[in-house]
Specification:
By secondary structure, the chain is α/β, with parallel strands linked by helices. The chain is built from 19 helices and 25 strands. The strands form 4 sheets. Strands 8, 15, 16, 17, 18, 19, 20, 21 and 22 form a 9-stranded mixed beta sheet that branches. Strands 3-2-7-23-24-25 form a 6-stranded mixed beta sheet, with helices on one face. Helix 2 packs across helix 7. It starts with a strand and ends in a 5-residue tail after the last strand. The model has no long low-confidence stretch (mean pLDDT 95).
């Protein structure tokens, strides 16, 4: 054996052997799961034996939806997530420019601002950003990444003015410097020209951070962070071929329209799997925006903005055509849907495609699936759709959703408990860098239905909570199911990949409030210890 872990509290997620104290690993696979006396007999001359000291082990966390390259890029940008006022946003950005000695004419990128956290809850404007500098082009992404701001210098360099045509599926106001949804591409082109070596460096650094959080696999949507998505594929592929990709990656392949979809299909990437570390996954389609920026597409106007119903990226005909094309060529689809109108169109599109090609069975799914009514929930259950959920969103959304959409619709939204109890394949992710990719924070929100400060006391529609065990399943087995890998990972079971996470506490037997205190002691991928905390906890 290459590695034996013993004297542990091993949660296998294998129904036939749910608990164990030891596991033996060889050639990156689990060979035997059982108890110390039997497993330690398998120790060989070159076996590394690790005493877990009764630490809890779970299958490696598998984040079912994030943006790995964007996280890497944003990690080097100005962090505005803690700004509580417009003035603080200005001051923090000025300090970032000075501390990093950014010369006039060079781009300044800020990320993470949220007007709902400001003392005066208004969007910043181009004029506000000009107070920071008129010599630096400045771009600031809202925390949801569905809206950005640009100052006068950025707008000037990009050649955008009042004569510039509006972009389908988006909106911009050049006087305010505000760009929503697809209109962001007018600005983002300035930061998407990384070459393959640079992308490889960004990816490696991001993966190191993922390992520290016990994450061994990810489903990542990266295509829109490059002027050519083929660079993204090449960067990951080269890392996987070199053995330098420490986390298993499934690519969620974002396409912006029918033309790009057909071009992607013609490249014949379907089935690409390099050493079980990089694989092409579903086609990703954006249906709408975000709740925080009021660009999530709703059936009825926003309760707190009666003149707004959000933005549909594609009309009904376009969306049906795209999903039909994917169904025809055997590509499963995952669609970003936050508003109930977007979700309705997405479900209709999947229904249409399945009726058109009933002999083709594919695991289509919905990313986010936040604003739902009774009919939509029932259709999700009946159609056996995958749900890529982000319970961590409740940390912020529970403070705004009643005001945004009204209590009636809010009560049938974020209904994770109902979906799980009805057998829906619900996996968990974080949408990082929108949220931190800390699995324990995500699990805490799923279980307690509270924000990080323990509010509200009884939980936000607490009947929609799920258990710790259901959360672990959503983070392991179900995330593997999303990528058709349920027979090779997501469990600590004979023949499965030896991907595991060692935690400091027994998450099944601590108070729910203590979940936030649980840390990662060790992360194992392919039978190799990729991360180990130096702390004794």
């Amino acid at each position: 054996m290459d590695l034996i872990l013993h004297n542990g509290n091993i949660i296998t997620m294998d129904e036939k052997c749910p608990k164990a104290s030891a596991v033996a690993i060889k050639n990156g696979k689990v060979v035997v799961v059982g108890y110390d006396a039997d497993i330690l007999k398998l120790t060989g001359e070159n076996t590394k034996v690790f005493d877990l000291r009764m630490k809890t082990v779970v299958p490696g966390f598998n984040d079912s939806h994030l943006h790995n390259v964007k996280y890497g890029i944003f990690s080097n940008c100005c962090d505005l997530s803690k700004c509580a006022s417009l003035q603080e946003l200005i001051d923090v950005t000025r300090k970032f420019i000075n501390d990093n000695n950014i010369k006039p004419g060079n781009w300044v990128i800020g990320t993470g601002w949220n007007q709902d956290l400001f003392d005066v809850k208004l969007y910043p404007t181009k004029a506000d950003l000009d107070l920071i500098s008129k010599d630096h082009p400045i771009v600031m992404f809202r925390c949801c990444s569905h809206l950005l701001l640009a100052n006068s210098k950025a707008v000037e360099i990009l050649g955008i003015d009042e004569r510039t045509l509006q972009v389908k599926g988006g909106y911009f106001d050049v006087n305010l410097g505000l760009f929503r949804e697809t209109a962001k591409e007018l600005v983002q082109v300035s930061i998407k020209s990384y070459d393959v070596p640079t992308l490889k460096s960004i990816i490696k650094k991001s993966c190191e951070d993922l390992l520290k959080q016990g994450i061994t696999s990810i489903h990542t949507d990266d295509f829109n962070m490059s002027v050519d998505y083929k660079r993204i594929i090449q960067a990951y592929s080269e890392l996987a071929e070199e053995g330098n990709l420490p986390v298993r990656v499934t690519q969620q392949c974002l396409v912006v329209n029918q033309e790009e979809l057909e071009g992607f299909i013609n490249c014949n990437y379907k089935g690409l799997n390099i050493n079980d570390f990089y694989r092409i996954g579903p086609v990703k389609i954006l249906a709408d925006g975000s709740l925080g920026s009021r660009s999530a597409a709703l059936k009825e106007p926003y309760a707190d903005a009666p003149n707004m119903k959000g933005i549909l990226i594609h009309n009904e005909h376009e969306l049906k055509k795209m999903v039909e094309t994917c169904q025809k060529f055997g590509y499963y689809v995952t669609m970003h849907c936050i508003g109930d109108k977007a979700l309705e169109l997405a479900i209709d599109s999947i229904d249409y495609a399945r009726e058109k090609y009933p002999h083709i069975s594919l695991r289509h799914g919905i990313v986010h699936c936040q604003i739902t009514d009774e009919n939509l929930l029932n259709r999700i259950i009946e159609m056996d759709l995958l749900i890529y959920a982000q319970p961590i969103f409740l940390n912020y959304d529970l403070h705004i959703v009643d005001d945004r959409i009204g209590k009636r619709l809010a009560s049938s939204s974020y209904n994770f408990g109902r979906l799980v109890r009805n057998g829906v394949h619900l996996s968990m992710g974080t949408d990082s860098p929108v949220e931190k990719f800390n699995p324990m924070e995500n699990i805490y929100c799923a279980v307690t239905r509270k924000d990080m400060n323990g509010y509200p006391k009884g939980g936000f529609y607490p009947e929609q909570s799920i258990t710790v065990e259901e959360s672990i399943k959503a983070y392991t087995c179900e995330s593997a199911y999303c990528s058709y890998e349920e027979n090779i990972k997501g469990k600590i079971k004979n023949g499965y990949f030896a991907d595991m996470t060692v935690l400091t506490d027994d998450i099944y037997n601590i108070s729910h409030e203590k979940l936030l205190d649980v840390k990662v002691k060790m992360t194992i991928v392919d039978g190799i210890i990729r991360y180990e905390s130096n702390k004794d906890a």
